[in-house]
Write a structure and sequence with these properties.
single chain; 5 helices; binds FE2/S2 (inorganic) cluster
Length: 124
């Protein structure tokens, strides 16, 4: 039911944890299941230089978050902002239809983190 790539990221998730000196933090809740995702980003010169995630989500949420952190490292904020949940699911070799809603958490929390960073720049 799950691809090998999903199982790999579920069993060995990349970039788990938090960043105490994060430049942006995004939190997203999943209206379907009530699970929560938090993504921390570090930004330098308009590029994401580090990223971590914490989730109270299912295996698919863990795998998609792990994948999204790998996908955005080194990307510009604009490039990261257009990464969709579909793109993350595709990079994992697909997700079962009933688990597609889980991938929203990762992409949306990432976008919230970028917005948080941008809002802080305007205030500063
Ligand atoms: Fe909640 Fe997957 S069931 S994120």
């Amino acid at each position: 039911m799950y691809s090998d790539m999903v199982m790999d990221h579920f069993k060995n998730p990349r970039n788990v944890g938090s960043l105490t000196d994060a430049d942006g933090i995004g939190t997203e809740g999943n209206p379907v299941c009530g699970d929560i995702m938090k993504i921390y980003i570090k930004v330098q010169g308009n590029r994401i230089t580090d990223v971590k995630f914490q989730t109270f989500g299912c295996g698919a949420a863990i795998a998609t978050s792990s994948m999204v952190t790998e996908m955005v490292k080194g990307k510009t904020l604009e490039e990261a902002m257009v990464i969709s949940n579909k793109a993350v699911a595709e990079a994992l070799g697909g997700l079962p239809a009933t688990k597609m809603h889980c991938s929203n958490l990762a992409a949306d929390a990432l976008h919230r983190a970028i917005e948080d960073y941008q809002a802080k720049q305007k205030v500063a």
